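Subject: Sanity check before I submit

Could someone independently write out the structure tokens for this chain? I want to compare against mine line by line before I put it in a report. The sequence has 152 residues.
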Amino acid sequence: MVQTTTAPAKASLYNTDYYAWIEQQVALLQRGQTDAIDWVNLAEEVADMGRSQKQAVTSNLVVVLTHLLKYQYQPEQRSNNWLGSIREHRRRLRDAFDDSPSLRRHAQAAFMKTYRDAREQAADETGLPLNAFPENCPYSLEQALDPAFLPG
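---
Independent answer below. Compare away.
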């Protein structure tokens, strides 16, 4: 006989031991016990996973663009740390796009907002005035992702 978990018990485990709740939901799914799944919280967690993936792409793209701007507009300060950061965050983006190609559409859609954030970040980190950096992104998404591209 299959034991089902009541809604309050499902929510209680979700609220008191998140990892145990995950293990429980995975086990229920693997056994095909869909009647015992905590569907409300599971749906929210799946939606959160999608939001997290998009936020990671945006964050990594801000870092790449910030360092590209610093590299271009503060050439006397260029460092291997900047190059290493550009490479690392490009790699993270490449891996995200390899795992989920549709995330590239998100990167393209968020590109201008991401550039605005990177421009502000570059101004903060360099001490240069915001207007030292172009209002419109001087790079394409393809250039930002290209492992061989460096400006200027």
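---
OP: Matches mine. For the report I'm noting this point. Confidence is low (pLDDT under 50) at residues 1-5.
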